[in-house]
Amino acid sequence: MTAAEPLLKISGLSVVFDGFRAIDGIDLSVAEGELRFLIGPNGAGKTTLIDVVTGLTKPASGSVSFAGRELVGKREHQVVRLGVGRTFQTAVVFEELTVEENVDLAASFRMSLPALFRRRQGRSDAVAAVLERAGLMALAEQPAGILSHGQRQWLEIAMLLAQEPRLLLLDEPVAGMSREERERTGELLVEIARDRTVVVVEHDMEFVRTYASAVTVLHEGRVLTEGDMASVQADPQVQEVYLGRSRDTRAAEPAAPAEEKEKEGVA
Amino acid sequence: MKTPGLLAQRTKGGKWRGVVAFAAVALLVLAVAPVTLSPFRLELLAKYLCFAIAALGIGLAWGKGGMLTLGQGVFFGLGGYAMAMHLKLAEAGPGELPDFMVWSGVEELPLLWEPFRQPWFALLMVVLLPGTIAALLGLLVFGRRVRGAYFAILTQALAAAFVIWLVGQQGLTGGTNGLTNFSSFFGLDLASAQDQRILYFIVAIVLGLLYLGFRQLVASRYGRLLIAVRDGEDRVRFLGYDPAVVKTVAFTMSAVSAGLAGALFVPVVGIISPALLGVVPSLELVFAVAVGGRYALAGAVLGAVLLNYAKTTFSENYADGWLYLQGALFIGVMAYAPKGVIGLAGQIRDFVALRTRGPARRIPAQQPPPVPPGPSADAPAEPVEPVGPVEKEAVA
Amino acid sequence: MNAFMNQLPIGLSIGAVLLLIALGLTFTFGQMGVINMAHGEFIMAGAYTAYMLQDWAGRQAVLVALPVAFAVAGLMGLLLERTLIRRFYGRPLDTLLLTWGVSLVLQQVARDLFGAPNVQVKAPTWLVGGGEWLGIRMPYARMFIFVLAMLSVAAIWFYLSRTKQGRRMQAVMQNRELASCSGIATSRVDQRTFFIGSGLAGVAGVALTLIGPVGPALGTYYIVDAFLVVVAGGLGRLQGAVIAAFVLGLLNSYVEFWSDASLAKVVVFAVIIGFLQLRPQGLFVLRSRKLT
Q: C2-278 — its CATH code?
């Protein structure tokens, strides 16, 4: 983790919503090729952090540099074009389009407008590979509207993969998934992380414990601690604010105050 | 159970049905109508087809792209006036003024009119004027993420402003009366039934080509993208596309098709005037698309022809009743058949299915149980219950 | 200079009428996502109410008509909400088209009831003529309209911020689900909003009888501008509507004054597009992180 220049470097970042400091001076670096988990109680600022990186939310101050380029001030699609992709807590897929068309659109954003006017001829290898990887091949020609919850999450991940970003930001990819689906998603994540940089926001502690190597804990808009899973879990500060009351952290902080602002998806 | 294979078969069958239907309609329009209809009726049909050309554009922008454009009258008018100005000048002869200018005391041809003497310039303007204005407006409005109802209201305000401006510029535009009294159109004698028939063919062919072009567009990646923008503009940004560009392209194309419609309307009907272009005529165009079925391009064409036919027939006999009927029809369509005539078949099928198989299969797909049952990805032979999309895929 | 200043009361009174109309629109739009094109016909209904009351109240009809028109237009709005619009919540574009159908029918009803030609409502004698103030000609009728609008705004402000019902209305406007979960009967609040909003259109209609004739298409002349006020002011915002209405009213009357009337709407349109470049969501925005 001592790469010369981190792929993603967030420094002095603050986000204010009507006086409420959702992010309060965060510094965070993610090196190329890393698989990083962001955890923290509701309202810690995890999703907001992703929102800022991807251009959805404008920070009050601070900078986000990606591969040496400033992302703050860029619009969402420009950030994507630089190589940063994300998924959403609530999977949003285009229900009227087929699964394949969803993935194909994600894969085609580098095309010029005139090229987009042409009909899609067959299935490109890249799209086929992504469909295969996400286990959606058999559903390729179905409208995405019929997918189950878990399948939607996978379709989101598939669309993200199809974009071939350098940095992938996943916002609670296993929320609402069955145990089996969680396992498959975890394996998929590890596989993806082999050749890409991945940041995962996750609530599900069992999932984090199984798959996380590097973890950053956020609390009330600040970085509480960073490190591998074992040392983070052993950190008394973390135990106090986050894992505190019970050793069984499986049911992700039930007593934490529900911060409305944290809940978000693209509707 | 609907398996992927079956679905593929179905769409293939649908494609053939589409080709057959298109051929049948083309035959009807190009071969049957010209020999069976009286010249008067054929002219009326040509007029409906002009409206259908404009409706196609609305079908693209609104049906596929979700942009409710209530100002198509403006683009229709720009195309129409560009054409009418040329026809007027061609009629007046070199160096002469069009008749209405003489009557309203204009002594010198306004500078704006001069280049319209050239047929190529006029034809270019038929496309360029509406296209440029729509593109500019689209970039300004969509670029700032002004959308939905706001966009609809803005386009409506544009229609209102345009008409008031037209009326006020008596010497330039002919004011309330507009431009009328055309006798020829690029060598066609507009008084001759024979030449009117040729004109009818031109209109029908333009409509057919535009329909095919838009079909192709909708089937292309861009068309998929347009639907994606309609259903989730904000999500599309995270796929790396700028929705403002995607929307502007469709809006511009809809404006150009309205311009073409207006340009053909002028020789067919023989007049272009503000009364044809304002808020109400613009809304009527949208209404036609809603009646025919906004989600299908064919619905737009069907709606425009049906509605204008109904309008002619009814207002010939009971002028007042027509407004009640139109209002009632509008309310009825919006309330009970939001997918229009084209969508009715699917709606009836759903209704019957609901009656015969019970409400269980109506659980919408977008609200799945929190824990989805079974490892469906590993067992694709047994896909999710075929719910929901039945009505969605009915139109293409 | 005098001619210039004389334009002021004209612009202000047009702004006042736009404001009365736009208030109802902005609340029904902001709260329910309903774009009510038939709102213009509530104006017309208010104006004809004043016309009808002349038989009974003579020249004081305008005064008597104010509360009656409020009730008449309000009830029409309530009826429309209960019978049709209720089924369309969350589909703003569809409500626009639906209510346009309603508007067509209502205009035809007016034509059948009152005839197509315009009718006049005689203003009370004390509103005829005008005074002079700082060298500006102040027609009493236009001043009356301005005061009427200001009183209405004050009443609305009081209702929204000082009464329980009004606060509920604000709550529903800001977050319908949350308000509903907190035990607010949202559908009743919707009905009230519709009643009040439509009623104000009726009041605007009465005001319009003071400055022009009444016809079945009266509403169509104002509805588009009123919607522009909503767009420029920001959804559901009282301050926004007030400022936008007067700016639009003054802009309209001054452009007409400087150039010609036919250009005024084009200029207003261009100004609004330009303004939206700076503030795409209007003057005042209800802040929320929700994406729509």
A: 1.10.3470
Exposed/middle/buried for residue C286 (C-beta within 10 Å: 0-12, 13-18, 19+): middle
Distance from the Cα of residue B327 to its chain's centroid: 20
SS3 readout for C178-208:
HHHHCCCCHHHHHHHHHHHHHHHHHHHHHHH
The rounded distance, in Å, linking the Cα atoms of C92 and C98 is 10
Query: Can you tell me the distance from the alpha carbon of A107 to that of C21, in angstroms, rounded to the nearest whole number?
Result: 48
Q: How far apart are CA A235 and CA A225, in angstroms?
A: 8
Interchain CB contact of C292 with A (< 8 Å): yes
With CB atoms and an 8 Å threshold, state whether A261 touches C291.
no
The Cα–Cα gap between C179 and C186 comes to 7
Specify whether the CB–CB gap between B267 and B122 falls below 8 A: no
User: What element of type H or E holds C105?
Assistant: helix C92-114
- Is residue A3 in a domain? no
A81/B240 Cβ within 8 A: yes
Contacting partners of chain C (3+ CB pairs under 8 A): A, B
Task: Report the CATH number that the domain containing residue A214 is assigned in CATH.
Answer: 3.40.50.300
Number of CB pairs, chain B paired with chain C, less than 8 A apart: 124
Question: Residue B16 CB: number of other CB atoms within 10 A?
Answer: 9
Strand, coil or helix: B386: coil
Residues of chain C contacting residue A258, judged by C-beta atoms under 8 Å apart: none
Half-sphere exposure of C197 (CA within 13 A, CB side): 34
ipTM for the assembly: 0.91
User: Is A78 contained in some domain?
Assistant: yes
Write out the E strands in chain C: 130-133, 136-139
> For B263-321, what is each residue's pLDDT tens digit?
999 999 999 999 999 999 999 999 999 999 999 999 999 999 999 999 898 887 777 78
User: Amino acid identity, residue B164?
Assistant: I
Q: Give the C-alpha separation, B189 to B184, whole Å.
A: 5
Q: What are phi and psi of C131, to 5 degrees?
A: -115, 180
Spatial contact of B32 and B45, defined as CB atoms under 8 Å apart = no
pLDDT tens digits, B212-226 = 999 999 999 999 999
* Torsion angles phi and psi, residue A36, rounded to 5: -115, 135
Four-residue CA torsion sign, B23, B28, B34, B36: positive
Total domain count for chain A?
1
DSSP secondary structure letter of residue A98: B
User: Is A267 among the domain residues?
Assistant: no
Residue A81 lies in a domain: yes
The domain limits of chain C are 2-278
Give the relative orientation of helices C2-32 and C186-209 as an angle to the nearest 10 degrees.
160
CB nearest to B228's CB, from A76, A97, A111: A97
Domain that holds residue A151: 8-262
Give the containing element (helix H, strand E) for B141.
helix B119-143
**Exposure string over B375-391, b if 16+ CB within 10 A, otherwise e:** ebbeebeebbebbbbbe
Distance CA C248, CA B254 (A): 30
pTM of this prediction exceeds 0.90: no
